[in-house]
Structures are given as C-alpha cells and as structure tokens.
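Thread title: Can someone regenerate the structure for this chain?

I was given the following input by a collaborator and told the matching structure tokens would be attached. They weren't. Posting the sequence so someone can regenerate them.
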Amino acid sequence: MSSLTRRNIEILKWIQEFCERNQFFPTYREIQRGFSYKSVSSVQNRVRTLKKLGFIVNDSHKARTLRLAAFEHSPAPEPQGIAIRGVIAAGGFVETFTDVKA
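Best answer:
Regenerated them for you:
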C-alpha cells in the first residue's frame, strides 16, 4: 500500500468496516457523510484513483456495486437475522351471537 495516500488508506478501511457492519457496500453519498465531504465529487475523485490503482471495483451506472478488490473473488457476506422456526396459531374465526330473548 505504499502508493496510497493516508486518506486513501482511511477510505479503504472505512469501506471494509462499513461492509462488515452492514453486510453491504456503501454508496458514494454514505462515504461522503462518513468523511464529512461537502460534495460527492470529492468521493468520486478518490474512488476513481483507487480504481486505477486496483483497490476498488464497481459496475458503472448501478447502485451499491462499489466493492473492494479483495472481496471480488470471495463470496458475498451472509446476511444475519432471526431464524424462523415454525408457525404461531392465531386462532380461527369466532362467530358472535346476540342475546335474543323471545
């Protein structure tokens, strides 16, 4: 990583931590907010540099395709959540009768 600036290394680490925390990769706007940049173009310039150096890969014109080249050949992170086991019976239809006195 000797060809990278300190800020580029920080961005790479931030993207990796974001992915580990959220199980998906960030958008340019999320990176912008994460580093308090005033515009998205600052992020685009950094990402363009990291792409030229081979550290970042993305598909043009698609959302959330920004990813680290280290993750390119590894499987996608497994989503975490709650396992659903079985069903809960909520009961059936109950017919109500009015009390009619004859």
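Strands lie at 56-57, 67-68.
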